[in-house]
Amino acid sequence: MRIEVDKLGKSVRLAGEEESGDTLHILADVSFTVNPGETVAVVGSSGSGKSTLLGLLAGLDVPSTGRVRVDGEDLFALDEDGRAALRGRCMGFVFQSFQLLPGLTALENVMLPLELAGVADAAAVAREHLASVGLADRLGHRPDQLSGGEQQRVALARAFAVSPRILLADEPTGNLDAGTGGQIIDLMFELNRRQGASLVIVTHDPALAARCGRQLRLEAGRLTP
User: What's the pTM value of the predicted model, to 2 decimals?
Assistant: First the structure.
């Protein structure tokens, strides 16, 4: 799935600065394309706008300027429900903090997006994906009964279970030690290879960035050459 980002910008009015009109420019004039199946790392220092950019690519936030096209469809020509429907059809997400529902088991966490998508045998599909990340024996465990690495494996299984055409990942190894992070990196790229999804990964991890086919560097909200 092709993503086209055209002159994307995001600015916010600073709190308490209504009279002066001071504005914080988080992103400015960001343009790039992600081709189907491509792996792209978004790198840069803290505060450079990386996570804001990822939120805009997902349609979770609205830009101040510019547009994002997903397979030719203007993401921000859609209303909030339309953007949510598009996310459900073609996007998967992996977060630094895992974002698992604490009251659900590993199996139930992976089943949830499948059930929302109307998949007939959600439990069987969820079991298959948990087995693919090495958690066939942890189906009934809740997040607080799993290690950080196991929780991120559940998050990967959940993301890939819906066969996304785009996977957006925000610091997926940020809360993991180097050894566990390396295993998650290997697993993410293996799942990408099998399913052919485009990967866009925000990361401070040089090992993860080096595995991607291309790196985009943000500095103060702008792409650098």
Answer: 0.88
